[in-house]
Amino acid sequence: MLQIQLGHLFSDKLNLYGDKGNILSLKYRLEARGFQVVITEINELKDLDFTSFDFFFMGGGQDQEQVEVAQVLKAHKSALEDFIEQGKPFLAICGAYQLLGESYMTSEQEIIEGLAILNVETRAKLEKNEKDFQDRLVGNVVANLNFSLESGSNLQTLVGFENHSGRTFITNARTQALARVVKGFGNNALDQTEGARYKNLFASYLHGSLLPKNPHLADELIYLMLKAKGLDCSNLKILDDNIEIQAHKQALELK
Questions:
Q1: What is the pTM of this model?
Q2: What is the homologous superfamily of the domain 3-253 according to CATH?
Q3: Active-site hit among 8, 76, 164, 207
């Protein structure tokens, strides 16, 4: 039985809003297809063999936790970049999304330097005299994926829940928006973008968790894991997603 290694980075510090459900969803969907899955919760990067993992997940946290994690990540930037350049998939939600960008300005005006793997900049909030000021961007989101899924699904919508003060702006065409907002605020409440993507690094503000309600995106990550291992994934077993699709459809109707 083929073993798939899933790494949950900083599960002790970046663990808001039940985002662990994303990696549990991947585990379920992989095991339903006959794979053996090992989830490793990683809270210390020293001596970590990044090459032994097929996928990394990193979630959201408070500003102080992000400051602490940013310092650790900087020492391992090269290993993370190598992982991503090899085409292995990585899912980053909210705070993790911000840390993988170029910089994040906190509500106390402190600048946290990111890893600059994603060409995005984030600041805690817009000034009150700027257009469409909101203290926090909170609510249900519907967005259309900005790319075609290699796994072949025709479902192109993403649903989720956002709750963030950070305003994120894409700064270079090397990084693409993950999706275009139909309902909700997205990256910054101004340009209708949601999330970001570089190669197989997917970043999003969507909580809820994201993958259980978006099984097509979960399967895309699985497809990319197998592809990076050099496996034939053209006949990926189709799962019964009736419950997941119903949850997705209900989320589409939320106001």
A1: 0.94
A2: Class I glutamine amidotransferase (GATase) domain (3.40.50.880)
A3: 207
